[in-house]
Write a structure and sequence with these properties.
The complex is a heterodimer of chains A (197) and B (159).
Chain A: H1 6-37, H2 43-58, H3 64-79, H4 89-110, H5 114-138, H6 142-170
Helix pairs in contact in A: 1-2, 1-3, 2-3, 2-4, 2-5, 2-6, 3-4, 4-5, 5-6
Chain B: H1 2-27, E1 34-38, E2 41-45, E3 53-60, E4 66-75, H2 76-82, E5 92-97, E6 102-106, H3 107-111, E7 116-122, E8 125-126, E9 137-140, E10 153-158
Parallel strand pairs in B: 1-10
Antiparallel strand pairs in B: 1-2, 3-4, 4-7, 5-6, 5-10, 7-8, 7-9
The chains are: A mainly alpha (197), B alpha+beta (159).
Protein backbone atom coordinates (compact mmCIF):
# COMPACT_ATOMS: atom_id res chain seq x y z
CA UNK A 1 0.00 0.00 0.00
CA UNK A 2 2.96 2.33 0.64
CA UNK A 3 3.79 2.21 -3.08
CA UNK A 4 0.43 3.66 -4.00
CA UNK A 5 0.61 7.14 -5.47
CA UNK A 6 -1.57 10.03 -4.46
CA UNK A 7 -3.31 10.00 -7.83
CA UNK A 8 -4.28 6.34 -7.26
CA UNK A 9 -5.70 7.19 -3.86
CA UNK A 10 -7.59 10.10 -5.42
CA UNK A 11 -9.01 7.72 -8.00
CA UNK A 12 -10.13 5.36 -5.21
CA UNK A 13 -11.66 8.30 -3.32
CA UNK A 14 -13.52 9.28 -6.47
CA UNK A 15 -14.83 5.72 -6.81
CA UNK A 16 -16.05 5.88 -3.18
CA UNK A 17 -17.90 9.14 -3.77
CA UNK A 18 -19.40 8.11 -7.09
CA UNK A 19 -20.50 4.83 -5.52
CA UNK A 20 -22.38 6.61 -2.76
CA UNK A 21 -23.88 9.16 -5.15
CA UNK A 22 -24.86 6.44 -7.63
CA UNK A 23 -26.81 4.59 -4.94
CA UNK A 24 -28.80 7.72 -4.12
CA UNK A 25 -29.46 8.43 -7.78
CA UNK A 26 -30.60 4.96 -8.75
CA UNK A 27 -32.66 4.31 -5.60
CA UNK A 28 -35.97 5.76 -6.89
CA UNK A 29 -35.79 3.57 -10.01
CA UNK A 30 -34.53 0.51 -8.13
CA UNK A 31 -37.30 0.92 -5.55
CA UNK A 32 -39.95 0.53 -8.25
CA UNK A 33 -38.66 -3.00 -8.92
CA UNK A 34 -37.90 -3.95 -5.30
CA UNK A 35 -41.30 -2.64 -4.12
CA UNK A 36 -42.97 -4.74 -6.81
CA UNK A 37 -41.01 -7.81 -5.67
CA UNK A 38 -41.66 -6.90 -2.01
CA UNK A 39 -38.02 -7.01 -0.97
CA UNK A 40 -36.10 -4.27 0.87
CA UNK A 41 -33.42 -3.62 -1.78
CA UNK A 42 -30.51 -5.25 -3.56
CA UNK A 43 -30.34 -3.38 -6.85
CA UNK A 44 -29.02 0.01 -5.74
CA UNK A 45 -26.32 -1.65 -3.65
CA UNK A 46 -25.07 -3.68 -6.61
CA UNK A 47 -24.85 -0.51 -8.70
CA UNK A 48 -23.00 1.29 -5.89
CA UNK A 49 -20.55 -1.61 -5.45
CA UNK A 50 -19.77 -1.48 -9.17
CA UNK A 51 -17.53 1.52 -8.50
CA UNK A 52 -15.63 -0.34 -5.79
CA UNK A 53 -15.07 -3.17 -8.27
CA UNK A 54 -13.78 -0.68 -10.86
CA UNK A 55 -11.47 0.83 -8.24
CA UNK A 56 -10.18 -2.58 -7.15
CA UNK A 57 -9.58 -3.55 -10.77
CA UNK A 58 -7.79 -0.34 -11.74
CA UNK A 59 -5.62 -0.07 -8.62
CA UNK A 60 -4.43 -3.61 -7.90
CA UNK A 61 -3.48 -3.18 -4.27
CA UNK A 62 -4.47 -5.70 -1.62
CA UNK A 63 -7.25 -4.42 0.63
CA UNK A 64 -8.16 -1.42 -1.48
CA UNK A 65 -11.86 -2.39 -1.79
CA UNK A 66 -12.10 -2.87 1.99
CA UNK A 67 -10.41 0.51 2.40
CA UNK A 68 -12.94 2.10 0.01
CA UNK A 69 -15.78 0.47 1.96
CA UNK A 70 -14.34 1.86 5.17
CA UNK A 71 -14.05 5.36 3.66
CA UNK A 72 -17.63 5.13 2.40
CA UNK A 73 -18.84 4.15 5.86
CA UNK A 74 -16.94 7.08 7.44
CA UNK A 75 -18.50 9.48 4.90
CA UNK A 76 -21.99 8.14 5.55
CA UNK A 77 -21.52 8.21 9.33
CA UNK A 78 -20.20 11.77 9.26
CA UNK A 79 -23.16 12.87 7.15
CA UNK A 80 -25.59 11.03 9.42
CA UNK A 81 -26.88 9.01 6.46
CA UNK A 82 -26.60 5.58 8.04
CA UNK A 83 -30.00 4.32 6.90
CA UNK A 84 -31.72 1.51 8.74
CA UNK A 85 -28.45 -0.03 10.01
CA UNK A 86 -27.60 2.92 12.26
CA UNK A 87 -24.20 2.70 13.94
CA UNK A 88 -23.68 -0.77 12.46
CA UNK A 89 -23.67 0.70 8.94
CA UNK A 90 -19.85 0.40 8.55
CA UNK A 91 -20.21 -3.41 8.62
CA UNK A 92 -22.53 -3.16 5.64
CA UNK A 93 -19.90 -1.23 3.69
CA UNK A 94 -16.73 -3.03 4.76
CA UNK A 95 -17.92 -6.64 4.37
CA UNK A 96 -18.63 -6.27 0.60
CA UNK A 97 -15.25 -4.54 0.25
CA UNK A 98 -13.49 -7.52 1.84
CA UNK A 99 -15.41 -9.89 -0.46
CA UNK A 100 -14.29 -7.88 -3.52
CA UNK A 101 -10.68 -8.04 -2.31
CA UNK A 102 -10.89 -11.81 -1.78
CA UNK A 103 -12.37 -12.43 -5.24
CA UNK A 104 -9.71 -10.25 -6.90
CA UNK A 105 -6.99 -11.97 -4.86
CA UNK A 106 -8.22 -15.38 -6.02
CA UNK A 107 -8.61 -14.10 -9.59
CA UNK A 108 -5.06 -12.77 -9.67
CA UNK A 109 -3.64 -15.93 -8.13
CA UNK A 110 -5.32 -18.12 -10.73
CA UNK A 111 -4.85 -15.69 -13.63
CA UNK A 112 -8.57 -15.75 -14.30
CA UNK A 113 -10.37 -13.82 -17.00
CA UNK A 114 -10.81 -10.20 -15.95
CA UNK A 115 -14.47 -9.94 -16.96
CA UNK A 116 -15.34 -13.10 -15.02
CA UNK A 117 -13.48 -11.85 -11.92
CA UNK A 118 -15.20 -8.47 -12.00
CA UNK A 119 -18.59 -10.08 -12.49
CA UNK A 120 -18.01 -12.59 -9.68
CA UNK A 121 -16.70 -9.82 -7.39
CA UNK A 122 -19.77 -7.64 -7.99
CA UNK A 123 -22.15 -10.59 -7.61
CA UNK A 124 -20.66 -11.93 -4.38
CA UNK A 125 -20.19 -8.45 -2.89
CA UNK A 126 -23.86 -7.59 -3.59
CA UNK A 127 -25.01 -10.87 -2.07
CA UNK A 128 -22.79 -10.35 1.00
CA UNK A 129 -24.15 -6.80 1.42
CA UNK A 130 -27.68 -8.17 1.22
CA UNK A 131 -26.98 -10.92 3.73
CA UNK A 132 -25.28 -8.48 6.11
CA UNK A 133 -28.24 -6.10 5.96
CA UNK A 134 -30.60 -9.03 6.48
CA UNK A 135 -28.65 -10.22 9.50
CA UNK A 136 -28.52 -6.76 11.09
CA UNK A 137 -31.88 -5.27 10.14
CA UNK A 138 -34.34 -7.10 7.93
CA UNK A 139 -34.32 -10.65 9.35
CA UNK A 140 -35.97 -12.08 6.25
CA UNK A 141 -36.34 -15.83 5.98
CA UNK A 142 -37.34 -18.38 3.34
CA UNK A 143 -38.57 -17.15 -0.03
CA UNK A 144 -38.15 -13.39 0.62
CA UNK A 145 -34.52 -13.94 1.67
CA UNK A 146 -33.83 -16.21 -1.32
CA UNK A 147 -35.38 -13.62 -3.64
CA UNK A 148 -33.44 -10.78 -2.00
CA UNK A 149 -30.13 -12.61 -2.49
CA UNK A 150 -31.01 -13.74 -6.03
CA UNK A 151 -31.91 -10.19 -7.07
CA UNK A 152 -28.62 -9.02 -5.56
CA UNK A 153 -26.76 -11.69 -7.55
CA UNK A 154 -28.52 -10.83 -10.83
CA UNK A 155 -28.00 -7.09 -10.46
CA UNK A 156 -24.43 -7.76 -9.26
CA UNK A 157 -23.76 -9.80 -12.41
CA UNK A 158 -25.15 -7.08 -14.67
CA UNK A 159 -23.26 -4.33 -12.83
CA UNK A 160 -20.10 -6.48 -12.89
CA UNK A 161 -20.40 -6.67 -16.69
CA UNK A 162 -20.91 -2.91 -16.83
CA UNK A 163 -17.92 -2.43 -14.51
CA UNK A 164 -15.78 -4.45 -16.95
CA UNK A 165 -16.84 -2.26 -19.89
CA UNK A 166 -16.19 0.93 -17.92
CA UNK A 167 -12.85 -0.28 -16.55
CA UNK A 168 -11.75 -1.35 -20.03
CA UNK A 169 -12.34 2.17 -21.27
CA UNK A 170 -10.77 3.76 -18.20
CA UNK A 171 -7.70 1.54 -18.05
CA UNK A 172 -5.65 3.45 -20.65
CA UNK A 173 -5.96 6.49 -18.38
CA UNK A 174 -4.44 4.71 -15.39
CA UNK A 175 -0.72 5.17 -14.99
CA UNK A 176 -0.53 2.10 -12.78
CA UNK A 177 -0.72 -0.29 -15.74
CA UNK A 178 1.89 -1.46 -18.14
CA UNK A 179 1.40 0.32 -21.42
CA UNK A 180 1.01 -2.89 -23.41
CA UNK A 181 -1.18 -4.72 -20.87
CA UNK A 182 -4.06 -5.93 -23.02
CA UNK A 183 -4.19 -9.66 -22.38
CA UNK A 184 -7.52 -9.55 -20.57
CA UNK A 185 -6.12 -10.80 -17.27
CA UNK A 186 -6.53 -9.03 -13.96
CA UNK A 187 -3.83 -6.53 -13.09
CA UNK A 188 -1.61 -7.63 -10.24
CA UNK A 189 0.64 -5.69 -7.92
CA UNK A 190 3.55 -6.75 -10.14
CA UNK A 191 1.99 -4.77 -12.96
CA UNK A 192 2.43 -1.64 -10.90
CA UNK A 193 6.19 -2.10 -10.67
CA UNK A 194 8.19 0.09 -13.02
CA UNK A 195 5.19 2.25 -13.87
CA UNK A 196 5.95 4.96 -11.35
CA UNK A 197 7.11 8.23 -12.77
CA UNK B 1 -17.67 -19.02 -25.19
CA UNK B 2 -16.97 -17.35 -21.85
CA UNK B 3 -19.33 -14.54 -22.77
CA UNK B 4 -22.09 -17.06 -23.51
CA UNK B 5 -21.38 -18.77 -20.21
CA UNK B 6 -21.73 -15.49 -18.30
CA UNK B 7 -24.92 -14.53 -20.12
CA UNK B 8 -26.23 -18.01 -19.32
CA UNK B 9 -25.62 -17.45 -15.59
CA UNK B 10 -27.40 -14.08 -15.69
CA UNK B 11 -30.38 -15.52 -17.58
CA UNK B 12 -30.58 -18.49 -15.19
CA UNK B 13 -30.47 -16.23 -12.11
CA UNK B 14 -33.03 -13.87 -13.66
CA UNK B 15 -35.29 -16.86 -14.23
CA UNK B 16 -34.90 -17.99 -10.62
CA UNK B 17 -35.59 -14.40 -9.47
CA UNK B 18 -38.76 -14.28 -11.59
CA UNK B 19 -40.07 -17.53 -10.07
CA UNK B 20 -39.17 -16.46 -6.52
CA UNK B 21 -40.68 -13.00 -7.16
CA UNK B 22 -43.95 -14.58 -8.26
CA UNK B 23 -43.98 -16.86 -5.21
CA UNK B 24 -43.11 -13.96 -2.89
CA UNK B 25 -45.93 -11.81 -4.23
CA UNK B 26 -48.37 -14.70 -3.88
CA UNK B 27 -47.37 -15.23 -0.24
CA UNK B 28 -47.32 -11.54 0.73
CA UNK B 29 -50.22 -9.98 2.58
CA UNK B 30 -52.58 -7.99 0.38
CA UNK B 31 -51.96 -4.25 0.31
CA UNK B 32 -55.31 -3.42 1.87
CA UNK B 33 -55.69 -1.03 4.77
CA UNK B 34 -52.82 0.82 6.36
CA UNK B 35 -49.29 -0.47 5.86
CA UNK B 36 -46.85 -0.12 8.75
CA UNK B 37 -43.25 -0.51 7.61
CA UNK B 38 -40.52 -1.03 10.15
CA UNK B 39 -37.13 -2.77 10.05
CA UNK B 40 -37.74 -4.15 6.58
CA UNK B 41 -41.05 -5.81 7.40
CA UNK B 42 -44.52 -4.63 6.51
CA UNK B 43 -47.65 -5.10 8.58
CA UNK B 44 -51.02 -4.52 6.90
CA UNK B 45 -53.66 -3.17 9.28
CA UNK B 46 -57.28 -3.35 8.19
CA UNK B 47 -59.16 -0.06 8.69
CA UNK B 48 -62.22 -1.99 9.80
CA UNK B 49 -60.30 -3.75 12.56
CA UNK B 50 -58.91 -0.61 14.16
CA UNK B 51 -59.70 -0.24 17.84
CA UNK B 52 -61.54 3.03 17.26
CA UNK B 53 -61.96 5.88 19.70
CA UNK B 54 -63.61 9.27 19.30
CA UNK B 55 -61.43 12.34 19.47
CA UNK B 56 -61.81 15.97 18.55
CA UNK B 57 -59.70 19.04 18.06
CA UNK B 58 -58.89 22.09 15.97
CA UNK B 59 -57.11 22.13 12.64
CA UNK B 60 -55.67 25.24 11.00
CA UNK B 61 -55.80 25.49 7.20
CA UNK B 62 -53.34 27.26 4.90
CA UNK B 63 -55.23 30.55 5.26
CA UNK B 64 -54.98 30.42 9.03
CA UNK B 65 -58.67 29.56 9.47
CA UNK B 66 -59.38 27.33 12.45
CA UNK B 67 -61.99 24.59 12.22
CA UNK B 68 -63.17 22.17 14.86
CA UNK B 69 -63.70 18.50 13.96
CA UNK B 70 -64.78 15.30 15.61
CA UNK B 71 -63.08 12.15 14.40
CA UNK B 72 -63.17 8.42 14.88
CA UNK B 73 -59.93 6.52 14.64
CA UNK B 74 -56.94 5.53 16.69
CA UNK B 75 -54.00 7.29 18.26
CA UNK B 76 -50.94 6.48 16.14
CA UNK B 77 -48.75 5.44 19.07
CA UNK B 78 -51.44 3.05 20.31
CA UNK B 79 -51.74 1.58 16.82
CA UNK B 80 -47.97 1.04 16.61
CA UNK B 81 -47.82 -0.47 20.09
CA UNK B 82 -50.66 -2.83 19.22
CA UNK B 83 -48.54 -4.03 16.30
CA UNK B 84 -45.42 -4.36 18.46
CA UNK B 85 -43.61 -1.48 16.82
CA UNK B 86 -41.57 0.57 19.26
CA UNK B 87 -41.11 4.27 18.67
CA UNK B 88 -38.47 6.26 20.52
CA UNK B 89 -38.07 10.04 20.68
CA UNK B 90 -35.34 9.79 18.04
CA UNK B 91 -37.47 7.81 15.59
CA UNK B 92 -38.50 9.37 12.30
CA UNK B 93 -41.86 8.43 10.78
CA UNK B 94 -42.96 9.14 7.24
CA UNK B 95 -46.65 9.01 6.42
CA UNK B 96 -47.39 8.57 2.72
CA UNK B 97 -50.72 8.78 0.91
CA UNK B 98 -52.02 6.67 -1.97
CA UNK B 99 -51.05 9.53 -4.31
CA UNK B 100 -47.55 9.71 -2.78
CA UNK B 101 -48.01 12.88 -0.74
CA UNK B 102 -45.91 12.49 2.36
CA UNK B 103 -45.35 14.12 5.73
CA UNK B 104 -42.70 13.51 8.35
CA UNK B 105 -43.24 13.06 12.07
CA UNK B 106 -40.75 12.81 14.87
CA UNK B 107 -40.87 10.04 17.42
CA UNK B 108 -41.34 12.67 20.16
CA UNK B 109 -44.50 13.96 18.45
CA UNK B 110 -45.94 10.47 18.12
CA UNK B 111 -45.22 9.73 21.78
CA UNK B 112 -46.95 12.95 22.90
CA UNK B 113 -50.43 12.01 24.12
CA UNK B 114 -53.34 13.42 22.11
CA UNK B 115 -51.27 14.78 19.23
CA UNK B 116 -51.07 12.31 16.32
CA UNK B 117 -54.00 10.16 15.19
CA UNK B 118 -55.14 8.05 12.27
CA UNK B 119 -58.76 8.96 11.54
CA UNK B 120 -61.22 6.81 9.58
CA UNK B 121 -64.22 9.14 9.87
CA UNK B 122 -64.57 12.91 10.27
CA UNK B 123 -67.66 14.72 11.58
CA UNK B 124 -69.75 11.57 11.19
CA UNK B 125 -68.70 10.91 7.57
CA UNK B 126 -66.53 8.02 6.46
CA UNK B 127 -63.17 9.09 5.07
CA UNK B 128 -62.78 7.57 1.63
CA UNK B 129 -59.72 6.19 -0.07
CA UNK B 130 -58.50 7.54 -3.40
CA UNK B 131 -60.50 4.93 -5.31
CA UNK B 132 -63.46 4.84 -2.93
CA UNK B 133 -64.02 2.51 -0.04
CA UNK B 134 -62.73 3.02 3.47
CA UNK B 135 -59.74 5.33 3.69
CA UNK B 136 -57.87 7.14 6.43
CA UNK B 137 -56.32 10.49 7.22
CA UNK B 138 -53.40 11.43 9.40
CA UNK B 139 -54.36 14.05 11.97
CA UNK B 140 -51.68 16.08 13.74
CA UNK B 141 -53.07 18.50 16.31
CA UNK B 142 -51.10 21.63 17.21
CA UNK B 143 -49.62 22.34 13.75
CA UNK B 144 -49.75 25.93 12.52
CA UNK B 145 -51.29 24.60 9.29
CA UNK B 146 -52.72 21.28 8.23
CA UNK B 147 -50.02 20.32 5.73
CA UNK B 148 -49.38 17.10 7.64
CA UNK B 149 -53.04 16.07 7.62
CA UNK B 150 -52.29 13.42 4.98
CA UNK B 151 -55.49 12.32 3.22
CA UNK B 152 -55.74 8.88 1.56
CA UNK B 153 -53.19 7.66 4.10
CA UNK B 154 -51.58 4.42 2.92
CA UNK B 155 -48.17 3.83 4.48
CA UNK B 156 -46.38 4.76 7.67
CA UNK B 157 -42.66 4.09 7.55
CA UNK B 158 -40.88 3.98 10.92
CA UNK B 159 -37.09 4.42 11.05
Amino acid sequence: MKDVKIRDLLFLALCCDIGLLAKRMISPFANVITDFLKIPGGIGTAFSLMFLVIGADMIPVRGCAALMGFVQSVIMLSLGMTGSMGMLAPIGYIVPGIVIDLVFYAGRKTGSDRAAVMMAANMLASASAGLTADLIVFRLKGIPLALYVTVALVSGALCGGLAYILAKRLRPLARTMKKNETDGKCLSEKDMEGTRS
Amino acid sequence: MKKKWMIGIIVLLAGVAAVLGFMNRQNSPKDEGLLLQSSGSTIAVSFEKLDQITFEGDLVNGKGEVSHHEYKGVELNALLEANRITVTEDSVLTATSEDNYSAELSGAEVLEAGKVYVAVSADGKMLEGLEGGQGAQLIVFGDSNSKRAVRYLKTIDIR
